[in-house]
Design goal:
alpha/beta; 5-stranded parallel beta sheet; 13 helices; 10% strand; globular
Amino acid sequence: MTGDAGAGTTADGVRLLAPDGTRVAHPEYAIDPSPAELRSLYRDMVLARRFDTEGVTLQRQGELGLWPSLLGQEAAQVGSVRALAEDDHVFPSYREHAVALGRGMDPLAIPRLFRGVDHGDWDPQEHHFHLYTLVIGSQTLHATGYALGLAKDGSASAVVAYFGDGATAQGDVSEAFNFAAVYGAPVVFFCQNNQWAISESNEKQTRVPLHQRAQGFGFPGVRVDGNDVLACLAVTRWALERARRGEGPTLIEAYTYRMGAHTTSDDPTRYRDAAEVDGWRAKDPLLRLERLLRAEGAADEAFFAETEAAGEALAAEVREGVRSMTTPDERHLFDHVYAEPHALVDEEREAFEAYRAAFAQEG
Protein backbone atom coordinates (compact mmCIF):
# COMPACT_ATOMS: atom_id res chain seq x y z
CA MET A 1 0.00 0.00 0.00
CA THR A 2 1.64 3.25 -1.10
CA GLY A 3 -1.16 5.81 -1.17
CA ASP A 4 -0.37 6.66 -4.78
CA ALA A 5 -3.70 5.88 -6.41
CA GLY A 6 -7.39 5.32 -5.84
CA ALA A 7 -10.46 7.32 -4.85
CA GLY A 8 -9.70 9.95 -2.27
CA THR A 9 -6.02 10.14 -3.23
CA THR A 10 -4.62 13.29 -4.85
CA ALA A 11 -1.15 14.55 -5.68
CA ASP A 12 -1.07 15.73 -2.06
CA GLY A 13 -1.83 12.19 -0.86
CA VAL A 14 -4.71 10.42 0.84
CA ARG A 15 -7.49 12.95 1.35
CA LEU A 16 -10.74 12.83 3.30
CA LEU A 17 -11.39 16.57 3.49
CA ALA A 18 -10.94 18.88 0.52
CA PRO A 19 -9.71 22.49 0.87
CA ASP A 20 -13.28 23.73 0.28
CA GLY A 21 -14.48 21.78 3.31
CA THR A 22 -16.24 18.95 1.50
CA ARG A 23 -15.71 15.34 2.49
CA VAL A 24 -13.91 12.94 0.15
CA ALA A 25 -14.56 9.19 0.24
CA HIS A 26 -11.63 6.80 0.48
CA PRO A 27 -12.08 3.01 0.42
CA GLU A 28 -9.10 2.19 2.64
CA TYR A 29 -9.05 4.99 5.21
CA ALA A 30 -12.70 5.76 5.89
CA ILE A 31 -13.53 7.35 9.26
CA ASP A 32 -16.70 9.03 10.45
CA PRO A 33 -15.94 11.31 13.41
CA SER A 34 -18.85 12.69 15.39
CA PRO A 35 -19.62 16.44 15.43
CA ALA A 36 -18.08 16.61 18.91
CA GLU A 37 -14.89 14.96 17.65
CA LEU A 38 -14.72 17.38 14.71
CA ARG A 39 -15.09 20.33 17.06
CA SER A 40 -12.40 18.92 19.32
CA LEU A 41 -9.96 18.52 16.43
CA TYR A 42 -10.63 22.09 15.32
CA ARG A 43 -10.17 23.41 18.86
CA ASP A 44 -6.82 21.64 19.22
CA MET A 45 -5.59 23.13 15.95
CA VAL A 46 -6.67 26.63 16.97
CA LEU A 47 -4.92 26.30 20.34
CA ALA A 48 -1.78 24.97 18.69
CA ARG A 49 -1.69 27.87 16.21
CA ARG A 50 -2.24 30.47 18.92
CA PHE A 51 0.43 28.85 21.11
CA ASP A 52 2.82 28.95 18.16
CA THR A 53 2.18 32.57 17.22
CA GLU A 54 2.75 33.54 20.85
CA GLY A 55 6.07 31.73 20.73
CA VAL A 56 7.12 33.74 17.67
CA THR A 57 6.01 36.99 19.32
CA LEU A 58 7.87 36.25 22.54
CA GLN A 59 11.06 35.56 20.60
CA ARG A 60 10.70 38.82 18.69
CA GLN A 61 10.32 40.59 22.04
CA GLY A 62 13.57 39.07 23.29
CA GLU A 63 11.92 36.69 25.74
CA LEU A 64 13.01 33.53 23.92
CA GLY A 65 16.30 32.79 22.22
CA LEU A 66 14.73 30.96 19.29
CA TRP A 67 11.38 29.61 18.13
CA PRO A 68 10.68 27.04 15.38
CA SER A 69 7.18 27.73 14.09
CA LEU A 70 4.68 25.00 13.18
CA LEU A 71 2.39 27.38 11.24
CA GLY A 72 0.64 25.40 8.50
CA GLN A 73 1.43 21.99 10.00
CA GLU A 74 -1.34 21.90 12.60
CA ALA A 75 -3.43 19.21 10.86
CA ALA A 76 -0.49 16.84 10.46
CA GLN A 77 0.35 17.09 14.14
CA VAL A 78 -3.12 17.19 15.68
CA GLY A 79 -4.47 14.44 13.42
CA SER A 80 -1.55 12.11 14.05
CA VAL A 81 -1.36 12.60 17.82
CA ARG A 82 -5.09 11.91 18.11
CA ALA A 83 -4.47 8.45 16.67
CA LEU A 84 -2.14 7.48 19.52
CA ALA A 85 -3.17 5.39 22.49
CA GLU A 86 -2.26 6.63 25.95
CA ASP A 87 0.58 4.12 26.30
CA ASP A 88 2.11 4.81 22.89
CA HIS A 89 5.35 6.81 22.80
CA VAL A 90 6.35 9.92 20.83
CA PHE A 91 9.87 10.85 19.76
CA PRO A 92 9.68 14.42 18.40
CA SER A 93 12.10 16.64 16.59
CA TYR A 94 11.85 20.31 17.65
CA ARG A 95 8.70 21.61 15.96
CA GLU A 96 6.06 19.28 17.42
CA HIS A 97 4.34 21.82 19.68
CA ALA A 98 0.84 20.63 18.77
CA VAL A 99 1.86 17.04 19.50
CA ALA A 100 3.20 18.11 22.90
CA LEU A 101 -0.07 19.86 23.74
CA GLY A 102 -2.00 16.85 22.47
CA ARG A 103 -0.11 14.58 24.87
CA GLY A 104 -1.05 16.80 27.81
CA MET A 105 2.32 18.46 28.26
CA ASP A 106 2.70 21.60 30.37
CA PRO A 107 2.46 24.46 27.80
CA LEU A 108 5.43 26.17 29.47
CA ALA A 109 7.75 23.17 29.06
CA ILE A 110 8.59 24.07 25.46
CA PRO A 111 9.21 27.81 26.02
CA ARG A 112 11.48 26.96 28.98
CA LEU A 113 13.68 25.06 26.57
CA PHE A 114 13.86 27.89 24.03
CA ARG A 115 14.41 30.49 26.75
CA GLY A 116 17.42 28.53 27.98
CA VAL A 117 15.99 27.95 31.45
CA ASP A 118 16.61 24.24 30.95
CA HIS A 119 17.58 21.78 28.22
CA GLY A 120 14.21 20.05 28.28
CA ASP A 121 13.50 18.91 31.80
CA TRP A 122 10.18 17.10 31.41
CA ASP A 123 9.82 13.46 32.35
CA PRO A 124 9.44 11.48 29.10
CA GLN A 125 7.49 8.79 30.94
CA GLU A 126 4.84 11.10 32.35
CA HIS A 127 3.09 11.70 29.03
CA HIS A 128 5.11 9.27 26.90
CA PHE A 129 6.47 12.32 25.08
CA HIS A 130 10.25 12.20 24.82
CA LEU A 131 12.62 15.16 24.69
CA TYR A 132 12.91 17.50 21.73
CA THR A 133 15.78 16.52 19.43
CA LEU A 134 17.75 19.20 17.61
CA VAL A 135 20.24 16.74 16.09
CA ILE A 136 18.51 16.20 12.77
CA GLY A 137 17.12 12.70 12.32
CA SER A 138 18.71 11.07 15.35
CA GLN A 139 15.35 10.58 17.07
CA THR A 140 14.39 7.99 14.43
CA LEU A 141 17.11 5.71 15.81
CA HIS A 142 16.02 6.39 19.39
CA ALA A 143 12.42 5.60 18.47
CA THR A 144 13.36 2.39 16.69
CA GLY A 145 15.41 1.14 19.61
CA TYR A 146 12.68 2.05 22.08
CA ALA A 147 10.04 0.32 19.94
CA LEU A 148 12.14 -2.84 19.84
CA GLY A 149 12.50 -2.69 23.61
CA LEU A 150 8.74 -2.43 24.03
CA ALA A 151 8.24 -5.43 21.77
CA LYS A 152 10.83 -7.47 23.66
CA ASP A 153 9.05 -6.61 26.91
CA GLY A 154 5.79 -7.93 25.49
CA SER A 155 4.14 -4.51 25.39
CA ALA A 156 1.30 -3.77 22.99
CA SER A 157 2.42 -0.14 22.64
CA ALA A 158 3.69 1.48 19.47
CA VAL A 159 6.07 4.39 18.83
CA VAL A 160 5.84 7.40 16.52
CA ALA A 161 8.95 9.27 15.38
CA TYR A 162 8.40 12.76 13.94
CA PHE A 163 10.88 14.35 11.55
CA GLY A 164 10.98 16.63 8.54
CA ASP A 165 11.76 16.15 4.87
CA GLY A 166 15.30 17.46 5.34
CA ALA A 167 16.02 14.74 7.89
CA THR A 168 15.48 12.05 5.25
CA ALA A 169 18.86 13.03 3.79
CA GLN A 170 20.56 12.01 7.04
CA GLY A 171 22.15 8.60 7.38
CA ASP A 172 20.53 8.10 10.77
CA VAL A 173 17.09 7.98 9.15
CA SER A 174 18.08 5.36 6.58
CA GLU A 175 19.71 3.30 9.32
CA ALA A 176 16.53 3.51 11.39
CA PHE A 177 14.41 2.47 8.40
CA ASN A 178 16.58 -0.57 7.74
CA PHE A 179 16.86 -1.63 11.37
CA ALA A 180 13.13 -1.23 11.97
CA ALA A 181 12.30 -3.22 8.84
CA VAL A 182 14.70 -6.08 9.55
CA TYR A 183 13.55 -6.48 13.15
CA GLY A 184 9.88 -5.61 12.63
CA ALA A 185 9.89 -2.73 15.12
CA PRO A 186 6.44 -1.38 16.05
CA VAL A 187 7.29 2.15 14.94
CA VAL A 188 5.59 4.68 12.68
CA PHE A 189 7.92 7.10 10.93
CA PHE A 190 5.94 10.32 10.52
CA CYS A 191 7.64 12.68 8.08
CA GLN A 192 6.17 16.18 7.88
CA ASN A 193 7.20 17.14 4.38
CA ASN A 194 6.82 20.91 4.62
CA GLN A 195 8.62 21.39 1.27
CA TRP A 196 11.69 23.16 2.64
CA ALA A 197 14.72 21.93 4.58
CA ILE A 198 15.56 25.45 5.73
CA SER A 199 16.31 26.97 2.29
CA GLU A 200 16.63 23.73 0.30
CA SER A 201 13.50 22.81 -1.65
CA ASN A 202 12.25 19.28 -2.20
CA GLU A 203 13.61 19.34 -5.73
CA LYS A 204 17.12 19.58 -4.32
CA GLN A 205 16.55 16.83 -1.77
CA THR A 206 15.00 13.91 -3.63
CA ARG A 207 14.09 12.57 -7.06
CA VAL A 208 11.20 10.40 -5.84
CA PRO A 209 8.31 11.11 -3.44
CA LEU A 210 9.60 10.56 0.06
CA HIS A 211 7.05 7.93 1.03
CA GLN A 212 8.30 5.68 -1.78
CA ARG A 213 11.63 5.28 -0.02
CA ALA A 214 9.99 2.83 2.36
CA GLN A 215 9.63 0.31 -0.46
CA GLY A 216 13.39 -0.04 -0.73
CA PHE A 217 13.55 -1.06 2.92
CA GLY A 218 10.66 -3.48 2.67
CA PHE A 219 7.80 -1.78 4.46
CA PRO A 220 4.79 0.36 3.42
CA GLY A 221 4.91 4.07 2.73
CA VAL A 222 1.86 6.32 2.43
CA ARG A 223 1.58 9.94 1.39
CA VAL A 224 -1.25 11.77 3.16
CA ASP A 225 -2.56 15.28 2.63
CA GLY A 226 -0.85 16.88 5.60
CA ASN A 227 -3.33 19.76 5.70
CA ASP A 228 -6.26 17.35 6.10
CA VAL A 229 -6.65 16.54 9.79
CA LEU A 230 -9.11 13.70 9.11
CA ALA A 231 -6.79 11.95 6.67
CA CYS A 232 -3.81 12.36 9.02
CA LEU A 233 -5.87 10.82 11.82
CA ALA A 234 -7.09 7.91 9.69
CA VAL A 235 -3.73 7.01 8.12
CA THR A 236 -1.81 7.27 11.39
CA ARG A 237 -4.43 5.16 13.14
CA TRP A 238 -4.06 2.51 10.43
CA ALA A 239 -0.25 2.54 10.72
CA LEU A 240 -0.34 2.27 14.52
CA GLU A 241 -2.78 -0.63 14.42
CA ARG A 242 -0.49 -2.35 11.95
CA ALA A 243 2.48 -1.82 14.30
CA ARG A 244 0.58 -3.19 17.28
CA ARG A 245 -0.30 -6.34 15.32
CA GLY A 246 3.41 -7.02 14.93
CA GLU A 247 3.52 -6.14 11.22
CA GLY A 248 6.43 -3.76 11.53
CA PRO A 249 7.10 -0.13 10.59
CA THR A 250 5.28 2.28 8.30
CA LEU A 251 6.46 5.53 6.75
CA ILE A 252 3.87 8.31 6.55
CA GLU A 253 4.71 11.33 4.44
CA ALA A 254 2.42 14.16 5.53
CA TYR A 255 2.52 16.47 2.52
CA THR A 256 2.16 19.95 4.01
CA TYR A 257 3.82 23.36 4.00
CA ARG A 258 5.81 25.46 6.42
CA MET A 259 3.95 28.77 6.20
CA GLY A 260 6.42 30.65 8.37
CA ALA A 261 10.18 30.70 8.72
CA HIS A 262 12.25 27.62 9.52
CA THR A 263 13.00 29.31 12.82
CA THR A 264 12.91 32.93 13.92
CA SER A 265 16.54 33.28 12.76
CA ASP A 266 15.49 32.51 9.18
CA ASP A 267 14.17 34.82 6.43
CA PRO A 268 12.14 32.68 3.97
CA THR A 269 11.58 35.61 1.57
CA ARG A 270 15.18 35.14 0.43
CA TYR A 271 14.53 31.72 -1.09
CA ARG A 272 10.80 31.33 -1.87
CA ASP A 273 8.26 33.58 -3.54
CA ALA A 274 4.96 34.93 -2.26
CA ALA A 275 2.93 33.15 -4.94
CA GLU A 276 3.98 29.76 -3.58
CA VAL A 277 2.98 30.74 -0.06
CA ASP A 278 -0.36 32.10 -1.29
CA GLY A 279 -1.08 28.83 -3.08
CA TRP A 280 -0.60 26.88 0.11
CA ARG A 281 -2.51 29.42 2.20
CA ALA A 282 -5.60 28.40 0.21
CA LYS A 283 -5.14 24.89 1.66
CA ASP A 284 -5.06 26.16 5.25
CA PRO A 285 -5.85 23.21 7.56
CA LEU A 286 -7.90 25.25 10.03
CA LEU A 287 -9.95 26.93 7.34
CA ARG A 288 -10.95 23.68 5.64
CA LEU A 289 -12.18 22.11 8.87
CA GLU A 290 -14.03 25.31 9.78
CA ARG A 291 -15.77 25.13 6.42
CA LEU A 292 -16.83 21.55 7.10
CA LEU A 293 -18.16 22.44 10.57
CA ARG A 294 -20.19 25.30 9.17
CA ALA A 295 -21.47 23.38 6.15
CA GLU A 296 -22.67 20.45 8.27
CA GLY A 297 -24.04 22.61 11.06
CA ALA A 298 -21.68 20.95 13.53
CA ALA A 299 -20.62 24.21 15.19
CA ASP A 300 -22.22 27.58 15.82
CA GLU A 301 -20.80 31.06 16.31
CA ALA A 302 -20.68 30.55 20.07
CA PHE A 303 -18.32 27.62 19.57
CA PHE A 304 -15.97 29.59 17.35
CA ALA A 305 -15.96 32.52 19.79
CA GLU A 306 -15.27 30.21 22.75
CA THR A 307 -12.45 28.51 20.84
CA GLU A 308 -10.84 31.84 19.99
CA ALA A 309 -11.13 32.90 23.62
CA ALA A 310 -9.50 29.64 24.75
CA GLY A 311 -6.61 30.35 22.40
CA GLU A 312 -6.16 33.83 23.82
CA ALA A 313 -6.26 32.44 27.36
CA LEU A 314 -3.55 29.92 26.48
CA ALA A 315 -1.41 32.66 24.92
CA ALA A 316 -1.80 34.81 28.04
CA GLU A 317 -0.80 31.87 30.25
CA VAL A 318 2.31 31.28 28.17
CA ARG A 319 3.19 34.97 27.96
CA GLU A 320 2.89 35.51 31.71
CA GLY A 321 4.65 32.24 32.47
CA VAL A 322 7.62 33.02 30.25
CA ARG A 323 8.08 36.53 31.59
CA SER A 324 8.07 35.25 35.16
CA MET A 325 10.69 32.56 34.56
CA THR A 326 13.78 32.97 36.70
CA THR A 327 17.39 32.28 35.78
CA PRO A 328 18.31 28.79 36.96
CA ASP A 329 21.19 28.08 39.32
CA GLU A 330 24.25 27.29 37.18
CA ARG A 331 25.02 24.28 39.38
CA HIS A 332 21.92 22.60 37.97
CA LEU A 333 24.07 21.87 34.92
CA PHE A 334 25.66 18.98 36.77
CA ASP A 335 22.42 17.37 37.91
CA HIS A 336 20.98 14.33 36.14
CA VAL A 337 23.93 13.88 33.76
CA TYR A 338 23.97 10.24 34.81
CA ALA A 339 21.34 8.21 36.63
CA GLU A 340 23.86 7.39 39.36
CA PRO A 341 26.68 9.47 40.96
CA HIS A 342 29.70 9.78 38.68
CA ALA A 343 33.26 10.60 39.75
CA LEU A 344 34.06 12.78 36.74
CA VAL A 345 30.90 14.85 37.15
CA ASP A 346 31.66 15.27 40.86
CA GLU A 347 35.14 16.48 39.96
CA GLU A 348 33.79 18.97 37.43
CA ARG A 349 31.21 20.23 39.92
CA GLU A 350 33.93 20.85 42.52
CA ALA A 351 36.05 22.73 39.95
CA PHE A 352 33.07 24.90 39.02
CA GLU A 353 32.34 25.66 42.69
CA ALA A 354 35.96 26.73 43.17
CA TYR A 355 35.71 28.95 40.09
CA ARG A 356 32.58 30.65 41.46
CA ALA A 357 34.15 31.06 44.88
CA ALA A 358 37.15 32.85 43.33
CA PHE A 359 34.87 35.66 42.12
CA ALA A 360 33.30 36.00 45.56
CA GLN A 361 36.73 36.36 47.14
CA GLU A 362 37.76 39.04 44.66
CA GLY A 363 34.62 41.02 45.52
